[in-house]
Amino acid sequence: MESASRIYIAGHRGLVGSAIVRRLAADGENNLLLPSRESLDLTSQAQVERFFETERPDQVYLAAAKVGGIHANDTYPAEFIRDNLVIQTNVIHAAWKHGVRKLCFLGSSCIYPKLAPQPMTEDALLTGPLEPTNEWYAIAKIAGIKLCQAYRRQYGFDAISLMPTNLYGPGDNFDLQNSHVLPALVRRFDEAKQRGDATVTIWGTGTPRREFLHVDDLADAAVFLMRNYSDEGIVNVGVGEDLSIIDLARLVARVVGYTGEIATDASKPDGTPRKLLDVSRIHAMGWNARVGLEEGVRSTYDWYLAHAADRRAG
Ligand SMILES: NC(=O)C1=CN([C@@H]2O[C@H](COP(=O)(O)OP(=O)(O)OC[C@H]3O[C@@H](n4cnc5c(N)ncnc54)[C@H](OP(=O)(O)O)[C@@H]3O)[C@@H](O)[C@H]2O)C=CC1
Ligand SMILES: C[C@H]1O[C@H](OP(=O)(O)OP(=O)(O)OC[C@H]2O[C@@H](n3cnc4c(=O)[nH]c(N)nc43)[C@H](O)[C@@H]2O)[C@@H](O)[C@@H](O)C1=O
């Protein structure tokens, strides 16, 4: 039987979108709208309007965005601010206009000030200057939060905003230049092991601290909040624990089986010194992350190995 709710997952081929599809499918949701990128370019207002008018989704998970790690954010500031502003404005407006019942917007922990007190509570938003390497992306994400809040206040549109910490898992981007640190290190250590390299050099000083959430936990939180939360306040989604980048590198090296040296390269940017979310708000609602970091890195490495041949072919 077809589920009653028509659910559109924007960005369903990406890390987060594909995890939300898996999570909803596991619950028996089989009325998912998954248009191809070729048939629906979300930067085109006309295409977005036509899609919503024709398909009439009931719910929307907005997981389509221009996304990347520290180097990509710093190198393509125009694309990061423009694409994200345009995609989210097109989708949020069309969703409201065509009667969507509920929308989930995904922000990021980088919306908080560079030197926000740790762990960062939701109230830290707009209390200080942003981290320069990703301020373009962060400004777009803050505008997305404000769009959701404004459409709720003026039109009563039920749009909620989640702030995930750094994510990883199956379906991640393993590009050496443009990805986030965790997938980059998985690939770097795996390739170094294959070649028998004596040293792997990671970017920056290794001292910044980051928090990592498995994408299946994020998808679970997004579905949980869509079912149980309806307010304008943003909600942090993380594990509430962080580690230094050098310790992450040691963990990934151990999982991959790389036994050489690990060096640091201080000429590369560190980014924000620490980014740890205060997750007491979502814990108080009854949600907790489940996947431990080592277990998550192991399963991500397995996924990477199973798909490395596809990547080489592509
Ligand atoms: N990854 C992370 O660590 C974090 C991610 N987030 C947020 O989660 C959300 C999803 O990120 P993530 O899954 O990692 O990113 P990915 O890059 O893995 O996926 C992004 C998706 O958006 C789609 N997309 C991009 N531009 C367009 C467009 N113009 N038209 C249609 N589709 C488009 C891509 O399509 P295609 O597959 O065709 O390229 C892809 O499926 C984003 O809002 C991001 O900001 C928040 C915190 C951390
Ligand atoms: C999710 C989040 O992601 C980004 O912020 P970030 O956390 O700084 O990003 P990152 O994962 O790329 O790096 C984390 C740390 O790790 C170090 N590092 C070491 N070696 C590699 C390496 O090989 N690749 C990368 N990418 N980083 C490396 C790197 O120097 C930095 O100190 C933003 O785009 C932001 O917009 C955002 O939302």
Automatic annotation (TrEMBL):
An example of a Gene Ontology BP annotation on this entry? Answer: 'de novo' GDP-L-fucose biosynthetic process
What keyword terms does UniProt attach to this protein?
Isomerase, Multifunctional enzyme, NADP, Oxidoreductase
**Residues binding substrate:** R188, W203, R210, D270
Tell me the GO molecular function terms.
GDP-L-fucose synthase activity; isomerase activity; NADP+ binding
**Residues in NAD-dependent epimerase/dehydratase domain copies:** 7-238
Keyword Isomerase belongs to the record: yes
**How would you classify this enzyme at the top EC level?**
oxidoreductase
Provide the binding site for NADP(+): 11-17, 106-109, 141, 164-167, 180
Catalytic residues? Y137
Q: Extract the coiled-coil ranges from the record.
A: none
Instruction: Give the EC number.
Output: 1.1.1.271
Q: Which InterPro entries match?
A: Epimerase_deHydtase (IPR001509), GDP_fucose/colitose_synth (IPR028614), NAD(P)-bd_dom_sf (IPR036291)
The pathway where this protein functions is: Nucleotide-sugar biosynthesis; GDP-L-fucose biosynthesis via de novo pathway; GDP-L-fucose from GDP-alpha-D-mannose: step 2/2
Q: Which reaction(s) does the protein catalyse, per the Swiss-Prot or TrEMBL entry? A: GDP-beta-L-fucose + NADP(+) = GDP-4-dehydro-alpha-D-rhamnose + NADPH + H(+)
Where on the tree of life does the source sit, at the highest rank?
Bacteria
Entry function: Catalyzes the two-step NADP-dependent conversion of GDP-4-dehydro-6-deoxy-D-mannose to GDP-fucose, involving an epimerase and a reductase reaction.
Family indicated by similarity: Belongs to the NAD(P)-dependent epimerase/dehydratase family. Fucose synthase subfamily.
| Name of the protein this chain belongs to | GDP-L-fucose synthase
